[in-house]
Amino acid sequence: MARLHVATWQETYRGIMRDEMLDDPALLSTRERFWTIGLTDDRFAHDRIAVAEQNGDLIGIAQSAAATDTDATWSQQLNVLYVLASAHGTGAGKALLDAVISPETAAGLWVADPNPRAQAFYRKHGFIPDGSCKEEYGIKEIRMIRRAPAEPDHKATLK
Question: Locate the N-acetyltransferase domain: which residues (predicted)?
Fold first, then answer.
């Protein structure tokens, strides 16, 4: 998972994130610690983690948790969703998203800006920018949110 995480960062963020960070030999061990803690530490027992495989090879990873933004009006936060570029368009991204956040669940996420491919993917799945921005790992990110579908009107007329 850590190797895939690093490879997808290198594919996705080259030209957006500093090369020194993407090519840092310590990046792999940092991501190994991230996933080891995420998979074994009781503090993260309620996080949802999924992987996508193709022909026995790992091609994507995803992770969500309870929302942490102080102004969140949604219950889930997508923290990780990466698919190898060679697997884009296979449906792996949607499967991963749905595995860690139900399509009926209100959710938020932070996405690099610019990152038109990822932003278009999230828009396709109901997320819209809410105007919030921040900087992390030296790159600008925008927040996108998805509201839960409206409750159906249960009023009925009896005859």
Answer: 14-149
Residue 106, classed as helix, strand or coil, is coil
Is 108 exposed, middle or buried (CB count within 10 Å of its CB: 0-12, 13-18, 19+)? buried
Q: Which helix (H) or strand (E) element contains residue 140?
A: strand 139-146
The pLDDT of residue 3? 97
Where do the domains of the chain lie, and which CATH numbers do they carry?
A: 2-146 (3.40.630.30)
Sequence-distant (6+) residues with CB within 8 A of 69 are: 77, 108, 132, 143
The predicted-structure confidence for 41-53, as pLDDT tens digits, reads as follows: 999 999 999 999 9
CA atoms within 13 A on the CB side of 134: 9
pLDDT-derived band at 159, boundaries 50, 70, 90: very low
Q: What is the C-alpha to C-alpha distance for residues 120 and 106, in angstroms, rounded to an integer?
A: 18
- Phi and psi of 130, rounded to 5°? -110, 5
d(CA 155, CA 134): 43
Closest CA to 91 of 116, 125, 66: 125
**Interval 81-95 mean pLDDT:** 97
What residues pair up with 111 in beta bridges, in sequence order?
142
